[in-house]
Amino acid sequence: MPSEKNIYQKAEEALKTYLRKEGMRLTQERLVILRYICTIRQNFTADQIVKELCDSQHISTATVYNNLAMFCDAHIIRLLPHRQQHGAQYEITIGDKYVFRYICTQCGREVTFRNKALEQMLFDRPYSNFEADNLSLVVYGHCKTCRRKKKRE
Questions:
Q1: Are 12 and 31 in contact, with CB atoms under 8 Å apart?
Q2: Is 126 helix (H, G, I), strand (E, B) or coil?
Q3: For the chain, which has fewer Cβ within 10 Å, the N-terminal or C-terminal residue?
Q4: Is 59 within 8 Å of 96 (Cβ atoms)?
Q5: Positive/negative CA dihedral, 77, 78, 83, 89
Q6: Residue 9 to residue 151: CA distance in whole angstroms
Q7: What is the CA radius of gyration of the chain?
Q8: What global pTM score does this model have?
């Protein structure tokens, strides 16, 4: 797994590239939010960032939400569509090009895994005029604990 410093450096470079392309400025607020996101090392919500940064760093709630949307556009983070029940959740995509996970539909347990054979199968196929930047594969089902509970019922 890449180090926090390495992830931040890659994310900052991606942000700078995006901002140059869009003609936007690199602000201190953007860097503070980005650094915080890179230290979390797990899925996060906008509310978590607001609670942590708005008072201590004098960053507005609107700034947090606007920057999260921009970070998504810049492919630094992604919105997790399967995690909307407690507010929108995000994950950082810098450092993890391929994300595979199992999610229990009963208890919500999530297990992330790597599979080199699956990565190779998905990305070594010749798709003309298409280059994937990253991939998120989600397999829904029931974890071992929930299956056992269901058998006992």
A1: yes
A2: coil
A3: C
A4: no
A5: positive
A6: 49
A7: 18
A8: 0.70
Query: Per-residue pLDDT for 20 more than 80?
Result: yes
Closest CA to 92 of 22, 26, 39, 24: 39
Per-residue model confidence as pLDDT tens digits over 71-126? 999 989 988 876 555 678 888 887 666 678 888 888 878 887 778 888 777 777 66
Strand order of the β-sheet with 77-80 is 44-45, 89-92, 77-80
Query: Other C-beta atoms within 10 Å of 148: how many?
Result: 10
* 81, amino acid identity: P
Contact 92, 9 (CB under 8 A): no
Residue 67 and residue 30 in contact, taking contact as beta carbons nearer than 8 Å: yes
Matching residue, tokens 């507005």: 60
Closest listed residue to residue 108, CA positions, set 81, 140, 66 = 140
| The pLDDT value given to residue 106 | 85
Distance CA 139, CA 86 (A): 20
Strand-pair category, 44-45 with 77-80: unpaired
Q: What type of residue is 54? A: C
